[in-house]
């Protein structure tokens, strides 16, 4: 990222402050994505979720969803698989329960 670029997990609003979830320092879209992935993980036993289905469930445009997923993948929270035809899937990576 270049200096002055806005990181998807810490976006700046028009005043440069950014809109974040109270107390967590994360954009609400990130929480929506992670919450939906967690719910799907519990339903499916950890099977990958299609990007199209996640986009529909979170009501985020695909471009927005992919931007946030890229940041979450960099952080080691999700694994994203992209296919040549433009489709793909995402899987939540959870630490082992001890």
TrEMBL record:
Residues 45-79 form the HTH iclR-type domain. Transmembrane segments: none annotated. Residues 1-27 are annotated as: Disordered. It comes from the Bacteria. InterPro entries: Tscrpt_reg_IclR_N, WH-like_DNA-bd_sf, WH_DNA-bd_sf. One of its GO terms (biological process) is regulation of DNA-templated transcription. It holds the Pfam family HTH_IclR. One of its GO terms (molecular function) is DNA binding. This is HTH iclR-type domain-containing protein. It comes from Herbaspirillum frisingense.
């Amino acid at each position: 990222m270049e200096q002055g670029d806005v990181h998807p997990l810490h976006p700046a609003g028009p005043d440069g402050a950014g809109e974040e979830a109270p107390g967590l320092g994360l954009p609400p879209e990130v929480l929506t994505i992670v919450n939906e992935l967690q719910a799907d993980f519990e339903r499916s036993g950890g099977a990958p979720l299609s990007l199209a289905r996640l986009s529909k469930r979170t009501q985020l445009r695909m471009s927005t969803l992919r931007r946030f997923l890229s940041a979450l993948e960099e952080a080691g929270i999700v694994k994203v698989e992209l296919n040549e035809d433009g489709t793909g899937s995402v899987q939540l990576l959870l630490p082992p329960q001890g």
